[in-house]
Amino acid sequence: MKKTIAILEGDGIGPEIMREAIKVLKAVEKKYEHTFKLIYAPFGASAYFTEGSPFPEKTKQVCDEADVIIKGPVGLAVEQMNDIPQEHRPELGAILPLRKRYDTFANFRPVRLPAGLKSFSPLKEEVIGDGIDILMIRELVGGIYFGDKVEGTSTEMKFARDDCIYTEKDVRRVAIVAFEEARKRNAKLTNVHKANVLATGRFWLEIVEAVAKDYPDIPYQSVLVDNAAFQLVVNPTQFNGVMLFENMQGDILTDQAGGIIGSLGLMPSACIGPEKSYVEPAHGSAPDIAGKNMANPYSMIGSVALLFEKCLTLPEEATDIWSSIFQIFEEGFMTRDLMGPWHTKEKLINTSDFGDRVVQKIEETHQGT
Ligand code: IPM
Ligand code: MN
Known about the structure:
This protein has 369 residues and is of the alpha/beta class.
């Protein structure tokens, strides 16, 4: 396969975890005889300082011309962020516009903790049981993040307002993606909502339940978001399968899932649009540890695995990366973020060791094994 890939390294730990992800991408390219043309482009807070925009025109062009995009985390330390006007900060000035530009409505965030890696989680071993395997699917281009944002004064009172809007099409298309995914995995689907308070919550529930009728073979349940947050901690494995969220609720509960499995460094993601898709870690740029070769590159390497799985439909390549990563963990190696006082320091590896080990595993195993 021949593809042009835009690489947006981002800020903070972005460039160093991207370096490891690219090593892995190149190992897969060689082994499976693909040809990838990589084009690097500035994106994020540092792009604002060097180019005057967190999502410069030339980056938009590179992304428009690319088949897929690999994006690193963005954002700098608070003091530097304070020097950037709100609309040019990477959240409102780069990430949301990127999602809107390519209408990447379905965000896949796999939450995987095999039983062998129980010790990464802050939860008790018995709670993890046979392991966590939830595919969280978050609607990514609608809801309150994309509605009108108003700050103003009326009758001497200051106020702020964010509009939350969902259309039937918005809900239906992501629900279909979630049910299709549940069918592929032969898994149940849990729909998360806030229908007891919000109009958009009732609407979300109604549309998803209408779509559910087209999938009578998929076990389906719905759960209020506050209860889902509670249940995820006390009994996460009951949700093994697919979970579906609207935008903001998915943002919050996917971070909670990172906490449950032990680190946001274990949270890769893929953002799928009708024509173009991109992948990114679900976490921020960790400026405090940037440049120290300490960050866990799993989320970035896993995002490359998701690129193969969800964007390029090359499942064998994806499985090769996933199994390499999990073998490294099962051999006992871990990065600093995963280390609890109960772990031994002997098997602590850094960012570049991790990438090297993944590449080595990919090279060692034969295709189709
Ligand atoms: C995420 C992030 C973004 C979001 C921010 C950085 C805009 O938290 O991808 O989860 O809220 O979607
Ligand atoms: Mn988030």
